[in-house]
Every structure is written in structure tokens, then in C-alpha cells.
Design goal:
heterodimer, A: mainly alpha, two-stranded antiparallel sheet, B: Helix Hairpins
Chain lengths: 512, 120
């Protein structure tokens, strides 16, 4: 029975891939858009059900083609462990909400089947990245997701979209080239590509591995939009269509950037003091610079993009603190920091996607997204306004919404780790985030309706359903955290206890 | 002087040339050529990690001696990796060129300093 369920791992990657191959064929057909919408909605539902099923499965490994080191071959593995389960669940959830939102939102664009094709390819890439147990397999799926996202940012084919997509493309390609260089060096030093085997056969105190780690930081830091490498994000995320902005900010920078950083530096290359300090510095810099730049923005989506940089900085900072505590053998604080970071990753995926979907709904109804031209939205579009208010309060860290709890966990972990100035800086950044989103609420929601808003009507039900779904999760995620914490987050602590272990053949049970 | 690392240094020089073109050139087409050179350099570096002194090509014929093959063949895994990487590079360069054509349609220039509408 366990063998049968393990076979679901490649199916989770195959479902969106097959859909992506079928969808371009619908481009020329008369009812092409309708069929593509149904197919993508089916794919999104299937992924969500699979993600819920995976939460109940034990840790397993799937070897493609049954070629595994146990039978003497070099094989590619798909791994389901605590971190993969959490990331796959986040990807499936946000994909479902974004698909639901796209059903009506994308009717304003042409070439809908091609949009859904690229969307399914991006989802394939992200699913492959979080489930992959092999370093080069991770790179290939990362490239699939990244190339699909470059095309999706350019989907509107206006001046700004093409410019933003070109910038994103060039920077993303340079980042990927550095990742490949890092993989080359690691392969040279260890002779393995499987992440568990790399951890076992890494030469100690090797400066080549340090250079490889630097290259990985460059490449994956660029995908995660950490501060020296963030320049593409404020242009790319506003220019994409709203559901794609939600996917990019909500899951892509996390699955391709933060997840890979955490996976590589905790599991693959053994965590040491330098890596932890670099992660802390990157996280802290992103946090501060992102929020300061967000404060002065006039374009709503650009403000959200800068605040994405800041919130992702929180997660990387928490991961860095966890790493430092692992090196100092203080496992309790490390577990707390990692729990706070991953909880914040989950929360940020939910409320940032919700914010971008609300901005899309606002743009759909009023035609603008500049803060100065909006106002009084709560009188004309009550549902969207309530969702936007919940999301804004959540990201600002106001109790009882989910953002408060995850930020609290991170701040407590930082202070328990002994970094008082860092903790104070985190609290200050939270305060500035609150300022930013008070500004957003004042300009968009409150006040008298501006001319653009006065003629707005509430958006269609499929779009509001997606927003209400995410809003409910925003509220429930904070209040009911003790109940689902064990199901989603407990197994992620396994990455703290040491590098990935090569699990035995599946028939024998397979837990590390 | 240790000449063993010379091929790696030269591959990194090619990467450096590509990176210089990406960072310093103002023409979009030269930037694309820089990305192509960068991909070439990285693939070359990856390929060089598989080299074995006096090695033979890793093609196993039915008449070959297995032990001798294992002793003398160069590593085939990096060759498989760069095949994948070349194809990825192909996709990226095709997308980049299509976008460059669209940029020219919208902005009437290939000069990057003129393509600067998104600011702040």
C-alpha cells in the first residue's frame, strides 16, 4: 500500500505537466478558453487534494525508474519530507486560489489557453523543485518555473510589461548560470548529485565548497529577491497580471528561493557559522531596505512588491538564526526560529497573494492601481475591501490575524538567541510595515469615493470566492495554530538534526 | 607552476567575458550575445570537471573490456548535464530574442539607457 502511495510523488509533478502540453492545442479552437479554464481548475483541485493527502503520508523517497544507489545505479529521487510537505501544500493552496481568480480576470486578455499553459508549466516547475531530492533535477525544474514566469510577466505585452520581463529575464538567467557553476563545483568535489549523498561525501573544510556556496547564495538569493539581488522584483511583480503577481510573490520567490536556500544550507552543504551569518545579514538587509522603499511608493502593486522583499527577509533571517543556533548546539531556540520562519513563510504566501488578488480586483473594477486615484473603496466594493483590510492588518502584524503570531515567534527567537539589536530592528521594521499598510488602507479603503471608484461594482463571484478563501485562512491560521501545527510544521524540525539521510528502499518502510 | 587548473581558469575567463557583456553593454542584442557566451562558459566549466588524463570517450561497445572502460573513460555524467543545460539555454535565448523584438516595436530602439520607463 505504501508503495502505491509513493507512486503519487511523480504524479504530483506529472499532472500539471501533461495539462501544460495539452493546453496550447486549444488555442485555435472555438471553445478553447472555456476548456482551458476547466482543465486548469481540475489540475488545481487535483493538486490541492494531493497536497492534503501528502500531509498524512510518512516520509518517503521515490526513485525514478527504480534506479537507486541500492541497486548500484545513479538515480534521480523525489523526496517527501517535512519541508517538502509544507511547501507543496503552500504551492497547491495558492495555485488553487490564483486559478479561481484567473477564471474571470483573464477574460480581459487574449490568448487565454496559452496563459493557462504557462501557468501549468510554472506550477510544474515549483512542484518539481519542492519534491526533488536531486540537485540537478532541482535546477531543471527551477528553470522550467523561471522561464514560464518570464513569459507570464510579459503576458500583457505593453511597454512596461516587456521592459520588466526583459530585466527579470536577464537577471534570472545570470542567477541560474551561477547556480549551475555551483552545482559543477559541488559535483567535482563530491562526485554525487543526490542531496543526501552530497551531504555524506562532502570534503571537510574545503574552500571549493565555500565558493560553491557563495555561487548558490548569488543564484538562489536572486530567485528569492534578497537585497543585493532584488532589482528585478519591483518591476516584474506589478507588471504581471494580478493572479500571476499573487503566484510570483506568494509562492515562486519562496519555492525557488527561500526553500532552496534552506534545503541546501541545512541539508546538503552542512551548516556552519559563516553560512548562518551570511543568511542573517541578507535577511536583515532585505527586511529593512524593502520596507523603507515600500513606504514611499505611489503604485499599489509596486508597494506590495517591495514589502514582499521585506517579508521574505524575515523568513531568511529566521532561517539564519536557526542555523546559528544549530552551530551553537542550542536546539530549542533553533527549532523555535525555524518554526517562526516557516510559519511566516506560510502566512506571507497567504496574505501577500490575497493582497495582490485584491489589487487585481480593484484594478478590474476601477481601472487604476495608483494610490492617489483610489479612495473610499469600502463603500462601493464591500467584499474586496474587507478582504483587503484583513490582509493589510495581517501583514502589519496586528493580533489576532496570522501575521502577528509568526512575527512574534521570530522576534522571540531572535532575542532568545542573544541578538538584542537585531530583535529591536525587527520590531522597528514591523512598525514601519504597519505604517505602510495604514497608508494603503487610508488611500484605498477609507475616505470619499474618488471618480475612478465611484463607478466601480463588486467583482464576479469566482474572484470573490478566491479572496474569501484566502481571508478565511488568514484569520484561521492565526487562531487555530496549535491545532494544525503538528500536522504541517512538526516534521520540518527534522532538517535541523542533521543533513538529509539516504532513506532505504520503499518496501522496507523508508523513514530516516 | 601548477598547470592542472589552467583549463578551469580559462573557462572562468569565458564566463567573465560573458558577464562583462551583460553588465557593461548598452545594446540589447550585445547583452543577449553576452548571455550566450556566459552559458557557453558555464557549460565548458561543467564539462571540464569530467576530464580524466589520457581518457577515452565514454561509449561502451559490446566488445569493450568493462574494467578497462571503467579505468579510462572520462566521466559521462557532466556530458549529460550540459546537454540539459544547452537546451535550457536555447529556450532562454529564444525567449530573450523574442522579447528584444517586442522591445524594439514598443521603444523604437535597442539602447538600454532609453528603455527606462519603470523607475523608483
Amino acid at each position: 500500500m505504501l508503495e502505491r502511495l509513493t507512486n503519487l510523488l511523480p504524479i504530483a509533478v506529472a499532472i500539471p505537466l501533461v495539462a501544460a502540453f495539452v493546453l496550447p492545442l486549444l488555442q485555435r479552437r472555438v471553445n478553447g478558453p472555456r476548456t482551458s479554464r476547466c482543465l486548469t481548475l481540475l489540475v488545481a483541485t487535483a493538486l490541492l487534494l494531493l497536497a492534503a493527502l501528502f500531509i498524512t503520508l510518512p516520509d518517503t523517497t521515490y526513485w525514478m525508474g527504480n534506479w537507486s544507489p541500492h541497486s548500484g545505479a545513479i538515480g534521480i529521487s523525489l523526496v517527501l519530507d517535512g519541508l517538502s510537505r509544507l511547501m507543496f501544500f503552500i504551492v497547491a493552496l495558492i495555485t488553487f486560489a490564483a486559478t479561481l481568480f484567473s477564471l474571470r480576470y483573464m477574460t480581459r486578455y487574449t490568448a487565454e489557453p496559452l496563459y493557462y499553459c504557462l501557468f501549468c508549466l510554472m506550477v510544474t516547475g515549483m512542484t518539481g523543485v519542492v519534491l526533488s531530492g536531486d540537485l540537478f533535477n532541482l535546477y531543471v525544474f527551477l528553470e522550467i518555473a523561471a522561464i514560464a514566469s518570464y513569459a507570464l510577466v510579459a503576458f500583457g505585452t505593453g511597454r512596461e510589461e516587456i521592459e520588466a520581463a526583459f530585466k527579470y529575464l536577464v537577471l534570472g538567467t545570470v542567477g541560474s548560470a551561477f547556480i549551475l557553476l555551483g552545482i559543477a563545483i559541488v559535483y567535482n568535489q563530491t562526485g554525487q548529485l543526490n542531496m543526501a549523498l552530497i551531504a555524506q561525501s562532502l570534503p571537510p573544510n574545503s574552500s571549493a565548497v565555500l565558493i560553491a556556496a557563495a555561487f548558490f547564495l548569488m543564484g538562489f538569493g536572486l530567485k528569492a529577491a534578497m537585497v543585493p539581488f532584488h532589482a528585478w522584483l519591483p518591476d516584474a511583480h506589478p507588471s504581471a497580471p494580478a493572479p500571476i503577481s499573487a503566484m510570483l510573490s506568494g509562492v515562486l520567490i519562496k519555492a525557488l528561493g527561500v526553500y532552496t536556500l534552506v534545503r541546501l544550507f541545512f541539508d546538503c552543504l552542512v551548516m556552519n557559522r559563516q553560512f548562518a551569518y551570511v543568511l542573517i545579514v541578507l535577511g536583515a538587509a532585505s527586511m529593512v531596505i524593502g520596507v523603507l522603499l515600500a513606504l514611499g511608493q505611489e503604485d499599489f502593486k509596486r508597494l506590495l512588491a517591495y514589502s514582499s522583499i521585506s517579508q521574505t527577509g524575515y523568513v531568511v533571517l529566521a532561517a539564519g538564526i536557526a542555523g546559528e543556533m544549530v552551530v551553537r548546539a542550542n536546539m530549542a531556540v533553533a527549532a523555535l526560529a525555524l518554526l517562526g520562519g516557516l510559519f511566516h513563510l506560510f502566512n506571507h504566501a497567504v496574505f501577500k497573494s490575497l493582497l495582490f488578488l485584491c489589487s487585481g480586483a480593484t484594478e478590474y473594477s476601477t481601472g487604476t492601481r495608483m494610490l492617489k486615484s483610489l479612495g473610499g473603496l469600502k463603500q462601493r466594493m464591500p467584499l474586496t475591501s474587507s478582504c483587503l483590510r484583513v490582509a493589510a492588518l495581517s501583514i502589519a502584524g496586528v493580533p489576532p490575524f496570522s501575521g502577528f503570531w509568526s512575527k512574534l515567534l521570530i522576534i522571540i527567537a531572535i532575542i532568545q538567541a542573544g541578538h538584542l539589536w537585531l530583535g529591536a530592528m525587527t520590531v522597528l521594521v514591523s512598525f514601519i510595515t504597519l505604517l505602510t499598510f495604514l497608508k494603503v488602507q487610508r488611500h484605498i479603503l477609507d475616505g470619499t469615493p474618488s471618480p475612478a471608484v465611484a463607478q466601480a461594482r463588486e467583482v464576479p463571484w469566482s474572484m470573490t470566492t478566491a479572496m474569501i478563501l484566502l481571508t478565511t485562512i488568514c484569520i484561521a491560521a492565526g487562531l487555530f495554530f496549535p491545532y494544525y501545527k503538528d500536522a504541517l510544521f512538526q516534521n520540518t524540525q527534522a532538517i535541523l538534526s542533521g543533513p538529509l539521510q539516504l532513506t532505504g528502499p520503499v518496501a522496507a518502510g523508508g523513514s530516516p | 607552476m601548477n598547470y592542472d587548473l589552467l583549463p578551469y581558469l580559462l573557462a572562468m575567463t569565458v564566463v567573465g567575458v560573458g558577464l562583462y557583456a551583460v553588465v557593461c553593454k548598452r545594446n540589447v542584442i550585445k547583452l543577449i550575445v553576452g548571455i550566450i557566451i556566459l552559458d557557453y562558459g558555464v557549460n565548458l566549466f561543467l564539462l571540464l570537471t569530467g576530464y580524466r588524463h589520457d581518457g577515452i570517450a565514454p561509449i561502451l561497445t559490446p566488445q569493450a573490456d568493462r574494467q578497462q572502460f571503467a579505468d579510462r573513460a572520462v566521466d559521462p555524467v557532466p556530458q549529460a548535464l550540459i546537454l540539459t543545460s544547452i537546451v535550457i539555454g536555447l529556450g532562454v535565448v529564444a525567449l530573450m530574442t523574442a522579447m528584444a523584438i517586442r522591445i524594439h516595436e514598443k521603444y523604437d530602439t535597442f539602447d538600454l539607457s532609453q528603455i527606462h520607463q519603470l523607475k523608483g
